[in-house]
Amino acid sequence: MSVLKGSRPVVAIDGRRALSGPYDALGRYAYHVITELAFLTRPYDLYVYGDLSADPETLKRWRFLFPVDLLITPNCVTWEQMAFPQAVRQADVVHAFDVPPLFSRVPQIITVLDVPRGSKEPLTMPWHLRLKEQYRSQILAARLPRAALVLAASDAGRQSLLEGFSVKAERIWVIPGAPAQTETKTWAKNRTVVALADPDPRGNLTGVLEVFQRAAPADFKLVLVLQKATQRLAVDRLVRRWSLSGRVEVVGPLLEAEWAQRLAEAAAFLYLPMRDSAALPLLDAMILGTPVIAWRGGASRELLADGDFLAVSTVDEAARTLSLVLSSSEIQQKFIEEGRKRALAYHWKDAAKRTHEAYLRVLTAHQEL
After folding, report:
1. 110-163: per-residue pLDDT in tens?
2. Largest CB tally within 10 Å, which of 174, 180, 183, 299?
């Protein structure tokens, strides 16, 4: 189904990541923003496009809110560069979550959470991941400077876009995400530490394993949560290399409710990725009352106060902090209360309203041409 022009302008959205739950950070960000957009009073129509990975329940819910079409293609490249641009050629604005169409005359808004580093990608990254990241970097390098607006989820992401992709400052809007849950009840804690299982070197899984091995008591278990099922083999290899097979449980990908339960019941959340991102998992842990030991950099820096005890810069510092958190219920309670206060300042409705304002800005500029 291509965009059908009516009396109102049309915003066409790449909704693949939002439709294909369980979600990674970008998918969850897109899902909540698009869902909240449906309930705003809008002078334009939304058309959402996905692929065959769409979750049937999400697809059914969304089709009550706005038109949703699945484009069938053999791979992501043909979807992004052939099927999607063909379907939206009559739209007034296209909103791409991550990789946009390379050849399109329709004004583009591009949301980028994890800003690529191009030629600086680690050589230790597996060849297929490196190839995919190079494709992504090249498309973004070509389109970001020409986009009508670029949406980032953190000031750290904004700075990376300015430095690495020559995007004009006035074209970058920062729209933070929010926690998946709003419930703030107290959960009984078990003897687990939760972390993301990202084998990409920037995900710093090696650092997570070292910190846990050095700091966690022998009866604690590390729960590693996959965001993609294809990462399991690489994660299992790293766990065996650190001789932690008996103390590590690899799970996922998880639905939001399952992810929330794992986080809420954990004694701590170890969040050490060395990349710019939305830091959504950090917000989730805070709202659910789980102390976070986070890398002092990227989006994490914006969520943790200056000099925060739980913000770390080295593996040694992270190990010392985790050991103290796991051994002291008083320290845990202190940071549970502070974390919840910070997380409650972020709302998906606010993110949707800012995205709506971005659409209006670009639609108005396009109509004046």
Report:
1. 999 887 765 444 445 555 666 777 888 889 999 999 999 999 998 888 888 888
2. 299
- Judge contact between 194 and 270, C-beta under 8 A: yes
Instruction: Write down the residue that tokens 């990241």 correspond to.
Output: 133
Q: How far is CA 221 from CA 267, 284, 321, 343, in A?
A: 10, 20, 17, 26
Q: Is residue 85 part of a domain?
A: yes
Is residue 254 assigned to a domain? yes
Q: Is the pLDDT of residue 68 over 80?
A: yes
Residue with tokens 């297929």: 128
The encoded tokens of residue 330 equal: 């008083």
**Do 170 and 49 fall within a single domain?**
yes
Burial 322-341 (b: 16+ CB within 10 A, else e): beebbeeeebbeebbebbee
Q: Note the pLDDT tens digit of each residue in 241-266.
A: 999 988 999 998 888 888 889 999 99
* Rounded Cα distance, 182 and 369, in Å: 43
Q: Identify the CA nearest to 75 among candidates 102, 56, 52, 58.
A: 52
Q: Is residue 164 part of a domain?
A: yes
Answer yes or no: pTM beyond 0.90.
Answer: no
Same domain, 294 and 352: no
Convert the pLDDT of each residue in 280-309 to its tens digit.
888 898 888 888 898 887 777 777 765 455
Domain that holds residue 95: 10-178+348-368
Number of Cβ within 10 Å of residue 258's Cβ equals 14
